[in-house]
Amino acid sequence: MKLRGIELRRVSMPLVSPFRTSFGTQTERDILLLKAVTDDAEGWGECVALADPLYSSEYVGSQVDVLRHHLLPRLSSPEGQAAIARSGAAAIAGLTHPVKGHRMAKAALEMAVLDAELRALGRSFARELGAVRDRVPSGVSVGIHDSIPQLLTVVEGYLDAGYVRIKLKIQPGWDLAPVAAVRERFGADVLLQVDANTAYTLRDARHLAKLDEFDLLLIEQPLEEEDVLGHATLARRLATPICLDESIVSAQTAAAAITLGACQIINIKPGRVGGYLEARRIHDLAVANGLPVWCGGMLETGLGRAANVALAGLPGFTLPGDVSASDRFYRTDITEPIVLDDGHIAVPTGPGLGVTPVPEVLDSVTRSVEWIVL
Question: Considering only Cβ atoms within 10 Å of each terminal Cβ, which end of the chain, N or C, has fewer?
């Protein structure tokens, strides 16, 4: 495969409603898209970094800079071109490894090259990653709201739409009461979990243990991402399983967390761990250790959403993930919409991602385009 160049495209996508978590409120997404152009095909990648360094140290502006000045030059070198010609997208991780961090940029780059490679070969993401399902169960992430009645109305709408699992964002002051209200209103049969996005400390263990009475699937990332030992201690104090998200940035960190007993479940976000190939390695590690995994979301467009659905088709993804339909976040997606059908989303079967941007929609949300020759 001969990689000719990479297009960096910034798009702005308004959300259908504000999405509030413990680290802030989003009303629109500033998204970096990559298009890899080869002799045989074009492929798309999506960087999931947010506009500001609040969820992680990465943010959109930093990802543009590191791609332009550090990652892409490594691909354009004679050694880089030779490695890509020989191994395709599998070479990206090794070529970019000397650059510390910036996993979201690396993931987007690998995704774009892999998409181009698979389109040229006529193979799908799902087949390449090892998916065994043709559709996956869909859960939905529900942000923090101004009142419990408002929250209950929103949850009811998602259940009526067919979502099979509800995830509630929580933070100190918005945890026990909303969870209790949802349980009381919708009953014990609703699959329910919570996500703290690092909002608590180990000093809150006694308070968090009160969540045990609500029979939750899991509590996601209650403590700071660096506090793996704290999660191991907390796991011994709670009946509710601990799921790690922000703490898992590679197969290596996943192995350490499993060994320490810091989690019983892992949320795999490809952008957070450096790409879909590393995500598959974490999946394989978790399966080997008997841990269930599920696929998290970062408010992706249809491009990233299609790739996530393909990943969620792997056998170890036994819990419903945040692979919701396009209309959960966007009135108009840049691809044909990803749709919910009887609580599930179909795994794309076309070459590569199986979806492409709709040109006129993409143009309408584009804010800048930069072409970098390799």
Answer: C
